[in-house]
Write a structure and sequence with these properties.
The chain contains 10 helices and 6 strands. It is α/β, with parallel strands linked by helices and 211 residues long. α2 packs parallel to α3. It starts with a strand and ends with a helix.
Length: 211
């Protein structure tokens, strides 16, 4: 197993604890992402235990590079960060397990063993974050569907341009309409979305994944 973490105290302590486990052998340590990638290339360990918040190259980027080059790599995230965005990004990058640093050592060992045997495992807090992310994704889909139902295709184009911060003249140039016509369309967009101003309309666009 390879340890990748820029905090010396934590990394040394984790190595000491893991080396007391019969079926886990620590074959190397790295203090940042680039060193971890280089060491993985040389050692090809069964499992990588990866922190996310590191200098030079983040853990997410390091996971993407390792799994992108070696698709069979098994990377376990071990970090203090447990927000929904980080959990989703880690799994999308190719991590197979997501654990938090305040977990009991037995749970960390279980995660490493699960990864080595081809399984996936997350801490309860990371699992909760995934649920939140899924709910947010569902909410975006519903909001997008509602916006698409309320607006015409032309009005959708104008909403996207509003979300980009374009003024009426710029919108007109982009879609070949006069400023007066754009002004009317913008008013219709605001009315249909129940938005008081362009900023609120832009928020609707972002929530619906249209910007």
């Amino acid at each position: 197993m390879l340890l990748v973490d820029d905090h010396d105290f934590f990394r040394v302590g984790m190595r000491t604890l893991l080396q007391e486990t019969d079926d886990i052998e620590v074959v190397g340590e790295a203090v940042d992402g680039p060193t971890g990638i280089e060491m993985y290339a040389r050692r090809r360990p069964d499992v990588v235990l990866m922190d996310l918040d590191m200098p030079r190259v983040s853990g997410i980027e390091a996971i993407e590079m390792i799994v992108g080059r070696w698709p069979d790599a098994r990377v376990v995230v071990l970090t203090v960060t447990v927000d929904a965005a980080s959990v989703v990004e880690a799994f999308r990058a190719g991590a197979c397990c997501y654990l938090v640093k305040d977990a009991a050592i037995r749970d960390i060992i279980r995660g490493i063993q699960a990864a080595a045997s081809g399984q996936m495992l997350t801490s309860p807090s990371a699992a909760s974050a995934l649920v939140v992310a899924a709910e947010n994704e569902a909410g975006r889909a519903e909001h997008e569907a509602a916006i698409r139902q309320a607006l015409t295709s032309r009005e959708l184009d104008i909403l996207r341009l509003i979300a980009q911060g374009r003024g009426n003249a710029e919108i007109g140039d982009a879609i070949s309409l006069s400023s007066s016509t754009v002004k009317k369309h913008v008013a219709d967009v605001l009315r249909k979305l129940g938005a008081e101003n362009r900023v609120e309309a832009a928020v609707h666009a972002v929530r619906g994944g249209l910007a």
